[in-house]
Write a structure and sequence with these properties.
It comes from Cohnella candidum. This is DUF3231 family protein. It holds the Pfam family DUF3231. It is a single chain. By secondary structure, the protein is mainly alpha-helical. The chain is built from 10 helices and no strands. The chain folds into 2 domains: 8-148, Ferritin, core subunit, four-helix bundle (Ferritin, Up-down Bundle), CATH 1.20.1260; 170-322, Up-down Bundle (Ferritin), CATH 1.20.1260.10. It has helices at 10-36, 42-66, 90-113, 118-145, 165-169, 181-207, 211-237, 260-284, 288-314, 327-331. Helix 2 runs parallel beside helix 3 (90-113). The chain is globular. The termini are far apart.
């Protein structure tokens, strides 16, 4: 039986709309990185990443046009200043490709599972496959260049064990069982993601002229640094080496290569992702003290998210996601004439 495409549902609209904004933002960063890249090994990977992003943007525009749906404004070349000198070292562009595709894998799998219109589902599945391949290429290159910090190793268990009640409660009593593999994994990748955010926000804060925005970005940087310190402490308590950065990767430039709209929007997007991933880590935590740490972090990150949300709204930089029809407004409309 031939599948018939029906109109977009809220899940197709929301998924395509959100991906469009993210891809147009990523395209701006990749365009800038490519303009300044000198590393002959990273350049082809960045070119491939940019082409993928541009094709996705074109595909979403085509899907929207086929439904007579307004194309979001997103971000464009107007949000990039190619005349500004390099703000990050070449290796950070590789870290950017790695991190954006890692987050894209999570995002695409989520939106794909919410869609049933076949052409949109096929598109998201294709994007997921592409992001998985790009992620693998970025990891291999980072390993070759010695800038990828592997997750902690652990000894294999000798037998199957079952959780004891007191091993969960002991966290509140100052007695900790060792972290399990799942908890260690979440801690490692939370550290990694926050190191990326620290470097990105350091660069942003260095070039933003608006003092209020600079203070807001610095506040976010400090929140990430606090998380890094906490998680590294947890690793050290397990006699595991904490994760450290290879280099700061930020130049001394104070000329902004990106619009303040793009900068603050990226901070807001990454903060929203942080809430999702910290919440995921909380759902997997089986040690009471660890769950308490995550709960506290979520509250702090959500408060910061409210501040970034207010900032982008006040400056009229935040596009309104498509709204459902306001039936109450229609039913309570004034009589004609």
């Amino acid at each position: 039986m031939k599948a018939v495409n029906i109109e977009f549902s809220c899940t197709e609209i929301g998924g395509l709309w959100g991906i469009y904004l993210q891809e147009t933002a990523s395209s701006c960063f990749l365009t800038y990185f490519l303009h300044h890249l000198q590393d002959a090994e990273i350049i082809p990977l960045a070119q491939e990443a940019l082409k993928l992003s541009q094709r996705r943007i074109e595909k979403i525009e085509s899907l929207f046009q086929s439904e007579n749906f307004p194309i979001p404004a997103g971000f464009s070349e107007n949000d990039v200043n190619l005349t500004a000198p390099p703000l990050f070292l070449d290796t950070f562009s590789l870290s950017f490709i790695y991190m954006m595709n890692r987050l894209s894998m999570i995002n695409y799998s989520f939106v794909a599972s919410n869609n049933v219109r076949l052409d949109v589902l096929d598109f998201f599945n294709e994007c997921l496959h592409q992001s998985t391949e790009m992620f693998g290429k970025a990891v291999r290159m980072m390993l070759e260049k010695g800038i990828y910090d592997r997750p902690p190793k652990m000894n294999y268990p000798q037998e199957v064990e079952y959780v004891q009640k007191e091993t969960i409660l002991n966290g509140f009593l100052g007695k900790h069982r060792p972290l399990n593999a799942i908890e260690l994994s979440e801690i490692f990748f939370n550290i990694e993601r926050n190191y990326f955010s620290v470097i990105l926000m350091l660069g942003f804060a260095q070039v933003v002229d608006d003092k209020d925005l600079r203070d807001l970005i610095i506040r976010g940087k400090k929140i990430s640094e606090k998380q890094i310190e906490l998680f590294n402490t947890l690793l050290m308590e397990e006699d595991l080496l904490g994760t450290v950065t290879v280099s700061m990767e930020v130049t001394a430039s104070t000329a902004s290569p990106f619009s303040e709209k793009l900068i603050l929007s990226m901070v807001h997007i990454l903060n929203s992702v942080d809430i999702v991933l910290i919440s995921h880590a909380l759902s997997l935590a089986m040690r009471a003290d660890l769950a308490a740490h995550y709960t506290k972090i979520i509250a702090e990150v959500m408060a910061y998210g409210k501040s970034t949300f207010d900032a982008v709204v006040e400056r009229r930089w935040l596009e309104q996601p498509p709204l459902a029809t306001d039936r109450k407004k229609l039913l309570n409309r004034p009589e004609p004439g």
